[in-house]
Amino acid sequence: MTRVLVLAAVAASALAQPLWAQDAAKVESCGHQATVVAAIQQARLDRVKERKVQAHVLSNATWPENFNTAIPLLTPWVYEMKMRDIRNQNLAEAWTELCLQQ
């Protein structure tokens, strides 16, 4: 979880633009990160083995390439959760909320 928070903080703080543009860029960045989280969650639901998640997720990636580096950082966070939580929670929504608070 700490790695996830660090990743969000780095992604959010890397944007050195005016405040209004930074807000728009932050929302966009958090959206892409949430899409990565959703893809990893779906891979878990599809019972993809953890070591094969990156290849599986990249085969259907719709986000900018620079967000691919988040996959190995976010995968353990998703795979450590109980399957009950994976089925019943919207991790992308939770991630977006957490990211936007940074």
Structure in words:
- The chain has six helices and no strands.
- α2 packs across α4 and α2 (19-45) packs antiparallel against α6 (91-101).
- The protein starts with a helix and ends with a helix.
- With 102 residues, it is an all-alpha fold.
- It is globular, with a radius of gyration of 13 Å.
- 25% of the residues are buried.
Approximately how much beta-strand content do the residues carry? under 5%
Global mean pLDDT: 85
* N- to C-terminal distance: 14 Å
Percent of residues in helices:
55-70%
Order of helices and strands: HHHHHH
Q: Which spans have pLDDT < 50 for at least 5 consecutive residues?
A: 4-8
Tell me the Rg in angstroms: 13 Å
Q: Largest sheet, described in full?
A: none
Concise overview:
The chain is mainly α and 102 residues long.
